[in-house]
Amino acid sequence: MTVGRRGSNKKSLLGIIDPGFVLHPGDKMRMCTGNPGTQAHGAAPEEADGVKNYFLFLPKAYVGAPGTVLTLVLRGLPVSKAEYDPAAPGGIKA
């Protein structure tokens, strides 16, 4: 998982998903950059409508500014990409 800004080629590695992690077709997962045990990160989102939380346990929350782009990478190739937009439904820009 990498993070960067829209329009920038500079990306930072956030973390590595556990080996053996499987996301089946149609499954939904919410990637949480913070730590649920850290009060400063706030409360974790509720797991509802089949969307589960996957925590990367990072020292701070990285998504907060509009235009932040998260990319899921497999062996150096982008698999999926999402841009944060607080005004959009679910916080993801269409």
Give the C-alpha Rg. 13 Å
Arrangement of strands in the largest sheet: 2-1-5-6
Shape call: globular
The helix/strand order is: EEEEEE
Judged by helices, strands and strand pairing, the structural class is: mainly beta
CA-CA gap between termini: 20 Å
Main beta sheet strand tally, sense and closure: 4 strands, antiparallel
Helix content: under 10%
Total strands: the figure is 6
If helices are DSSP runs of H or I spanning 4 or more residues, what is the number of helices?
Answer: 0
Unreliable spans are none
Mean pLDDT: 84
Percent of sequence in beta strands: 25-35%
Walk me through this protein's architecture.
The chain has 94 residues and is an all-beta fold. Helix content is 0%, strand content 33%. It has no helices and six strands. β1 (2-5) and β2 form a beta hairpin.
Relevant terms:
single chain; 94 residues; mainly beta; 4-stranded antiparallel beta sheet; two-stranded parallel ribbon; 6 strands; 33% strand; globular
